[in-house]
């Protein structure tokens, strides 16, 4: 799947993103297990943490929170209204065109143009998606203190679009 705010993409062509760390052009997508990391406006910075086989109960309770399940996503207050109003769409692809990218299996890439299996599907209310998936959604004044704790913990974690986050508190 690929998530976009554009509901009218007929063909995805490999390209090198402005923020890419590799020179090869790709079409990027994720499988359904990793799609919650993309239930956000495209440029929204987000920090995510989840439990894994090596996660300690103490880290889970400290970062995710007692009674909050096994996963939490965090955004900044400045993105709250955009989270409420964004029109986000999901495109589905034939998995045969893609191969895993990286060690964590979170992303898949295609090196040839791909056509969606059907029209873009409206994703819906992002808060409802998080609730239905049992994912805590935290809204913070600044992501960096949370991010620093997450990356020092035994939890699994991912940060997306952190370059668009507010500056670190001074």
Summarize the structure.
This protein has 4 helices and 10 strands; from the N terminus they run E-E-E-H-E-H-E-E-E-E-H-E-H-E. It is an alpha+beta fold and 170 residues long. It holds the Pfam family DUF6886.
* Number of helical elements: 4
Helicity, in percent?
A: 10-25%
Order of helices and strands: EEEHEHEEEEHEHE
Strand content: 15-25%
Parts with pLDDT < 50 across at least 5 consecutive residues: none
Overall mean pLDDT:
95
Overall geometric form: globular
Layout of secondary structure:
Elements: E1 2-4, E2 27-29, E3 46-50, H1 57-64, E4 71-76, H2 80-85, E5 89-91, E6 99-101, E7 107-110, E8 121-122, H3 126-133, E9 136-140, H4 144-151, E10 156-160
Parallel strand pairs: 4-9
Antiparallel strand pairs: 1-5, 2-7, 3-4, 3-10, 5-8, 6-7
Structure write-up:
- The chain is built from 4 helices and 10 strands; from the N terminus they run E-E-E-H-E-H-E-E-E-E-H-E-H-E.
- The strands form 3 sheets. A 4-stranded mixed beta sheet has the order 9-4-3-10. A 3-stranded antiparallel beta sheet has the order 1-5-8, with no helix packed on it.
- 18% of the residues lie in helices and 23% in strands.
- With 170 residues, it is an alpha+beta fold.
- A hairpin with a 5-residue loop joins strand 6 (99-101) and strand 7 (107-110).
- It has one domain (2-164).
- The radius of gyration is 16 Å and the shape is globular.
- The mean pLDDT is 95.
- Pfam families: DUF6886 (PF21820).
């Amino acid at each position: 799947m690929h998530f976009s705010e554009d509901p009218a993409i007929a063909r995805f062509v490999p390209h090198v993103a402005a923020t890419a760390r590799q020179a090869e052009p790709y079409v990027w997508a994720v499988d359904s297990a990793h799609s919650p990391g993309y239930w956000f406006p495209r440029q929204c910075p987000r920090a995510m943490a989840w439990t894994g086989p090596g996660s300690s109960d103490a880290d889970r309770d400290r970062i995710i929170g007692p009674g909050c399940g096994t996963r939490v996503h965090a955004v900044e207050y400045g993105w709250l209204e955009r989270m409420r109003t964004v029109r986000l769409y999901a495109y589905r692809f034939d998995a045969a065109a893609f191969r895993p990218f990286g060690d964590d299996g979170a992303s898949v890439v295609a090196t040839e143009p791909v056509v969606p299996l059907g029209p873009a599907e409206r994703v819906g209310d992002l808060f409802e998606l998080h609730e239905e998936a049992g994912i805590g959604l935290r809204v913070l004044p600044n992501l960096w203190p949370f991010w620093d704790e997450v990356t020092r913990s035994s939890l699994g974690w991912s940060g997306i679009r952190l370059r668009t986050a507010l500056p670190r508190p001074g």
